[in-house]
Amino acid sequence: IYTAVIPAVPLSLSSFTVCMWVKPTTVSNKTVLFSYGNRRNPYEIQLLLAQTSALFTVGGEAHLVEERDVVNPGQWTHLCGA
Question: Which residues form the Pentraxin (PTX) domain (predicted)?
Answer without folding.
Answer: 1-82
